[in-house]
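FORM 7B - TANDEM STRUCTURE REPORT

SECTION 1: FIRST PROTEIN
SEQUENCE AND TOKENS:
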Amino acid sequence: MPGSVPTGEWAVPHPTKLKYNKMFHDLDKARVGSLSGNQARSILMQSGLPNPMLAQIWALSDIDKDGRLTSEEFVLAMHLAEMARQREPIPATLPSELIPPSFRRPRGLSANIQIPFNGGGLSAGSNNNNLGASSAPAAGAVSQEVFDMTPASFEDKRKENFDKGNAELERRRQAIQEMQRQEREEREKREREEFERREKIRLEQERKRQAELESQLARQREIQERQEEERRKVIEQREAARLEMERQRKIERQRKRRHDLMNERTREYEELAHYKSQNSGIELHTVDSDTKRADLLQLVEETRNQVRERKEIIDGMRMKRDELLEEISRSTSQEQELGSDASRAKSERAMLEGRMSISSSGSGESPQSVTFEVQRRQVGISCLCLVSCLCLVSCVLFVEFSASDCLIACK
């Protein structure tokens, strides 16, 4: 209904606007600033809403009725679809607070866009005679074309009239374009002729300027040739002076080189004499070295003979050591036997003492004779132990003496 458009903020929430603006820019890959009906249809169909409700949302969102959705129209369509999914009622006409800011009309025009939806068709509002007669058929045609709805006969006639009007507009547009093309060709022809005239004048001026430049260049070349001739003469004089100085330096270098060679030859003669004296000294040293070498060889041979003799002595000592070790083992076995004899003697002593006590009480045998026999056997055992110890000590001393002799022989 008529009224003034409020100047408040757009009713679409700011987060929703940012979200669907980003989606719009992602879909608008060609950056044309709008989405086609097929692109918008594929997005709206993802909401799962029925086709009549989607057609109503399209009719409310496509404000300029061009069959495409700008960024604000796309945001409005997605906002209405979200309202429908939340089971909020979709308005039959677009309220002023939902009109995008770029589509709001000045004060004094209709505040609401009259786009009622009735059973799959669109009807004009209160101002149907002028604005609604052309906008409502377009909205119905686009929504029916996009969502494949069954058209009514009245809507078909209005669509046909709308198509005829579009064809007439297209014909007039082509006629205007033809007139504009002819005018553009005439203007281009005049511009081309003017350009050719100016180009001819420019070329003439360029030719004159080129002639003047050539004359100036000819004069400059003559001056440069004279300067080059003078420069060449100066260079020839400098080159002659340089060659003379080079010849003098070369003579000086040759004289210095000759002097250096003479000094080098004298120094080489002195070094040769020094090397000869060193050679004679080396020869004398070589003779002394040969003499020392013969003495050393003789000393080595004598040392080897001594070592060989010492080895023979050591071998004999080793044989004696082996014999003594055998003797020690025999003495050890004898010592063990003597130990066993001693233990038997102790047992016999105990038996004899028992017998003595018995005999003293019975037959009256002399205990002194029995005691003497026991003492005699103990003395024999002690002598055997002493002999074995002496043998063992002598063997140990012999082994130590043999080891010290071996060390002396090796040294």
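SECTION 2: SECOND PROTEIN
SEQUENCE AND TOKENS:
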Amino acid sequence: MPSNKVRLYFPYCFRKRMEGHDWCIVQLGVSGVISGVEVDTSYFTGNFAPRFSLQAACLPDGTTFPVRQPTMGTAASSQQLAAMEEMKTEKWTELVPMTPLRPGYPDTCKNYFPITSTQRWTHVRLNMYPDGGIARLRVYGIGSKDWSTVKNSELVDLVAMENGGVCLGFSNAHYGHPRNAIGLGRAENMGDGWETARRLDRPPILKADKSGVLMVPGCEWAVYRLGHPGVILKIEIDTNHFKGNYPDSCRIEACALSPEEEKAVVGKDGAATGKWKTLLGPTKLSAHHRLFLSGGQVQPVGVVSPVRLTMTPDGGISRMRLWGFPRAPNPAKL
């Protein structure tokens, strides 16, 4: 909720203040650990906010704020400000102290600030001193779920970005990064998925085995750390939008690794460990299709993290979902 706002959505510009300073509250699209923030003053060359600060809080689910209608040219009423004061947002943890910003010219508009906090946050408070314009606020970090609220019997997408899933390494990201495959919702287009370049080691004449899977020498892979170790029971592979460039097949492997072993896997093809177990064997894919797998199609491999998704020979996968129960890792198996 803004204190003196002309526009509800970025870019926004406050009118000149007579006293105090302006601010707004933003709920993060994905709760998590913040690693950096960018304050973009594009186009605000003579009326950019000269200084800003950023505060953050981790609030319980269901927390509500006083309603603030996006009416241009109006400031928050005294009643609205009084209601916000009861929430004491001005006492939230300071992530970036009051810091100068630069004007919105192309060579000065991007203002990036690294953040070293390791705490989970759900909301931020953007303060501008005393007023002015900010085109965009971008908050970067890694998603993090409050796993204490998840029951042992609750099925969760363990690899989802919003639940803390992270892409650790990959072989090819020519058209789309593999981190896109664990993004929010279904992919909006091909650029919102993971797509590789065509492999040049494909034979001139392609042949398939008895199950219809192409017999080719090469493949592309991506390794993901789950948001929480767990037992995977259901899998979804979605080739949404990939109609002529979907992979012929895919497979998924999983294992339980210590932090030291995980580092050895990052940036490699997984040959650094012999612990990979088959979670999903070679599975034929089709164009623009959402494939769900469960039961006997998903092999029991116990409590795992990370996982390795391999596509053969190349192409695009828009989303991968790994549904399972969060479980504590077994130290004896690391």
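SECTION 3: OBSERVATIONS ON SECOND PROTEIN
DSSP finds two helices and 19 strands in the chain.
Helices lie at 78-85, 259-265.

SECTION 4: SIGNATURE
Preparer initials: ____
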